[in-house]
Amino acid sequence: MKMKQGRKEKRYKSLFQRIVSFTTLVAGFTLLCGLGAILLSTPAVAANSPLLGVIRWDCFSNSTCADLNSLGPQQYHDRVPYFLSMDSSTQVSGNENSQSTIDQQIQYAHNAGIDYWAFVSGPDTSPNVAEAYALHKYLTSDYKEDLDFSVIIHRYNAQQTWSQRVDQMVEWFKEPTYVKVLGDRPLVYIFNVADMETYYGSGTPTQTNIDLLRQKTVDAGLGDPYIVAMHWQLNTAVSQLNKYGLDAIGRYGYSGLNGSQDMNNPSPFSALAQAQADSWDDYANSGKPFVPDISTGWDKSPRTTTPPPWGGGGGPYYEQPTPSEIAGHFKAGMDYARNHTTAVEANTVLAFAWNEVCEGGWLVPTHAQGTERLDAIKAMLNGVGVNALRNPGFEADMVGSQSAKSWSTWEGSSGTHANADYTEPGGNSWSWRLTHNKSAAYEVATHQTVTGLTNGLYTLSAWVQSSGGQTTAQMSVKDYGAAERIRTITASSTWQQIQLQHVPVSNGQAKIVFYSNAGANQWIRVDDVSFFKETY
Predict the structure, then answer these.
(1) How large is the C-alpha radius of gyration of the chain?
(2) What Å distances lie between residue 495 and 33, 239, 463, 525, CA to CA?
(3) What residues of the chain score a pLDDT lower than 50?
(4) What is the pTM of this model?
(5) I want to staple 267 with a disulfide (CB 3.0 to 4.6 A). Which of 68, 256, 260, 425 is the partner?
(6) How many Cβ atoms from other residues are within 10 Å of residue 237's Cβ?
């Protein structure tokens, strides 16, 4: 059954397959430097866990995308994806128009435990169209087996006849990585069936189009498509399902019930999350199968400040969630699907979104947060809670940096060794790592204090490498209400995980420290640091 592959078979590819794929990509980027760690660290998820899908709306394949202008003001630079450039306080530029960028995003999504992308698919599916570019690059990627895909049918015009468009979709359905549910049924979302009615005509013409999609798919030897009527309003989605014999209902995004209309005084994300969670019962009580939607946020401030040609700004506005809030909401949605198998018969949820940054919903790594949102989802799927640390994988800068974001540097007793700690390519499970090294003898510490902790037992862990030979190379935790706990970092040319377990936090805080007192060219490398509250 295809929907099990996303969680099981595809998570356990042979090392040989990964090495072969890796050699084709290493010149383009350094994401996969820790191959063994990727194999070991991919989330382990229960067999009945619902598929986690995430929406992709691809504007940034085009360097003239209007959303680049909306992201221009500096107050919105915290949501700029890592593959774009912030040229000034008023300008953002760039695109994701390369195979290596799409390959890298596939690996980001896969390593976090995402099962599939749902690509918004417009009326022209040719590969030179911006909205379709990322999908075509996905299909030619050496890494596509790590991440499944489906499509959201959206917009209609004369660039392709409906029959031509169906032929293209059937070819996609044949792909081994296209999402199949309930046996061999390709999962298809239709965004607002009324748009199809507007272009082709209500009633018989639209019914004929949907029947053609079903018939051509079955004629190709595949299962009857599982078609989800996607609309902002529940009653409209139900009406569309009933009118055209569709299979389920769903929603693209959710803006809440009574969110703030004041851009400068947004409502808390918790209000949005709670209202969305409450709405899942409304969908289940409709008596129609549905796909629960999970939000990563809602805030169209960039488009309010600098509207694109199609408009789309305005409230409500919500504060951007913390990574832990996102992970908690994802867990709630996946738990709901797991506990309502009749209503959620396709065993999938759909998140808004991978890259809707101008609407306030994203998981794609950004310059400001790096992979923190993905890190939190990965931790949730692994069942270990939420990492208390910020920038635990040293990805937030998305470039080599002398001082890792969210971490501080102690320059040694002499106060002259700040340049001995820095981030560089070659991480364990992502692209970047922390390194202590210098061409002369040095002493340096990299540290982060976390506050607001719930008292209890915690585990500190990190993946490390070391040249060996240092006077001291260690990881420690202190200022948590008891004596400092220390773990020595021993010599190793490969990544090894070290831990300090059962740290009894009693004052709501802790200071995490990596310390080196070393000779010239003696080094340690650190990545994937975590500080979790123990649940056993």
Answers:
(1) 24
(2) 10, 55, 6, 9
(3) 1-40
(4) 0.80
(5) 260
(6) 25
